[in-house]
Amino acid sequence: MLDLFTIFTKGGIVLWCFRGTNQLFAPPVNALIRSVILQERSGVYDHDGLSLQYKLDNEFELVFVVAFQKILQLSYIDKFLSDVHLEFRDKYKNDLRAENRNYTNFEFQADFSRILAAAEKWGKKQATLPKQMRSYEDSHKSKKTVASMIERRGGEEKPATKKSVKIVEAKREEQENIAPVANGSGGNEDLIMENRKKMMEKLSGKKGGGGKVDKQKSPKSPPQKSGKQMRVWELDGKSKDLPNLDRCKDRPEDIKSDFSSTDKMIGSMKGGIQDLEVESDNDYSEEEEDDDDDEATVTPAAKKSGGMFSLFKGLVGSKNLSREDMQPALDKLKDHLISKNVATDISHKLCESVAVKLEGKVLGTFDTIAATVKNTLTEALVQILSPKRRVDILRDCMEAKKNKRPYVMSFCGVNGVGKSTNLAKICFWLIENNFNVLIAACDTFRAGAVEQLRTHMRHLNALHPPEKHGGRSMVQLYEKGYGKDAAGIAMEAIRHANDTGVDIVLIDTAGRMQDNEPLMRALAKLIKVNEPDLVLFVGEALVGNEAVDQLVKFNQALADYSSNENPHIIDGIVLTKFDTIDDKVGAAISMTYITGQPIVFVGTGQTYTDLKKLNAKAVVHALMK
């Protein structure tokens, strides 16, 4: 049932390989290395109908990879990988050591077949067993109390207050009074009610047995004032006040912008975009971090013996790292990531990938477990946020201009994230670099969407008037009103830009929820018909777990609802409202981890110059503080 099982070193030397079919497995294994292992991800990786899983041996620097058909649901793969890993390293540990390394003789076929047969038998047995639900007492949640979740320095416990003691005593007394009655045959309800009344009097501090409260008559409500009169519409659908409803009748058609060509922002965004600077206001001090490292480093044995020598043994790298040693530090880092707005599922996967990378590794001298885990996670986060491919929009625009065609960018996302606003910021950056832009108003649903883009066009043209660019208008708006087909408007706008020599077309689309199938089909149609050079997903930095759902479903919809063999999915991310989150920058990690696509722009304010480029190290520094 397995298509491939291979064992190779981290340097790329294949030690042993099993092939179940004659299929060429180099592309999927190389894709696994490039997209998962080097990116320090975990879990199952799908490639061309195959599912691949891997396990690392950090002591001998080995990689174990298994591949099987994606349609198969093999429950024994994790156990099988672990069993093969233990059997192979125990059998050939002398040949794998660095001092006498020998990669010539690995006869493992008989052992592999035996372990595979045992794993398949175990899987069949597990499939026949009825699944039992875990009780609440067996879960980790039952062992957590409110007091245990409150962190205090020094380990002191908060003394119980008089109010809490009073409530506990009252509840205990109620149970003692009710229990004999409940166990009796009569079930005296009057006695139960009397005991409850006494308990309530004790809690409220009342003395006496009456407990009756005189009900006061509620005062009469004041007479309601006459509000706004409803407008009366005639049978023909018109109102007598219709002439007064037109707010634009006395407004001039050509409204002047508040901006001018002498504004300070002119020329401030020529060339590349400045890097983002993130300041952390968290009061997590280095002193607390050192205390946490010491707590996570001291092993239970060291705590029991209590001597200075046992503490020294806990600090110095004397054994290989195990998952049990790292678990306290991983749990704390996972909670820290969630508190910084990283999605829960992503936090779990990140910590799992760190555990896989460090398991079996020997600590260096005086390296603490907490510091090692934190540094490894920091390196993984920087690598996740770093672009995997070149992102140079200005260069791509110049290349398209040389080929005498417009460069097309499309913006998509959910409602209210700032697509039109950040489109205007990107437009300002482009005209600062001497590109003329055509904005396609393809949001034909939201009231005021076209007017909003027209206002931005007026402001941008005021900042860069045609007189300073040889009579050429730097920003134009292509709109056909409301209720039209967005894909058709985008196609006409691109054709118009091609005919008039416009350099760049920015397509503004309507906001839509990721679960709205008709609107997602319309978006997939727009991208399929017009084939933009860059599809940008606009998401806000305020979201947590919702970022995962949005990006996954947008990508899935663009792939499912397109008839192309290689559908065009999301190419990059625009992260907006970054100035509202302080140091809770976890949304950047969640979005990049899901798609693997870079964050191209970051919106940080309300002016046209508030557009930055993501600085991976600065974001991770704020995240880990």
From TrEMBL:
InterPro entries: AAA+_ATPase, Longin-like_dom_sf, P-loop_NTPase, Sig_recog_particle_rcpt_asu_N, Signal_recog_particl_SRP54_hlx, SRP/SRP_N, SRP54_GTPase_dom, SRP54_N_sf. It is a peripheral membrane protein. GO terms for biological process: intracellular protein transport; SRP-dependent cotranslational protein targeting to membrane. One of its GO terms (molecular function) is signal recognition particle binding. It is found in: Endoplasmic reticulum membrane. Residues 231-257 have a biased composition (Basic and acidic residues). Pfam families: SRP-alpha_N, SRP54, SRP54_N. Keywords: Endoplasmic reticulum, GTP-binding, Membrane, Nucleotide-binding, Receptor. Residues 598-611 form the SRP54-type proteins GTP-binding domain. Residues 152-171, 203-300 are annotated as: Disordered. Residues 276-296 have a biased composition (Acidic residues). Its main location: endoplasmic reticulum. One of its GO terms (cellular component) is signal recognition particle receptor complex. Coiled coil: none annotated. The keyword Nucleotide-binding applies. Belongs to the GTP-binding SRP family. PANTHER family: SIGNAL RECOGNITION PARTICLE RECEPTOR SUBUNIT ALPHA. This is Signal recognition particle receptor subunit alpha. It comes from Culex quinquefasciatus (Southern house mosquito). The lineage of its organism: Eukaryota, Metazoa, Ecdysozoa, Arthropoda, Hexapoda.
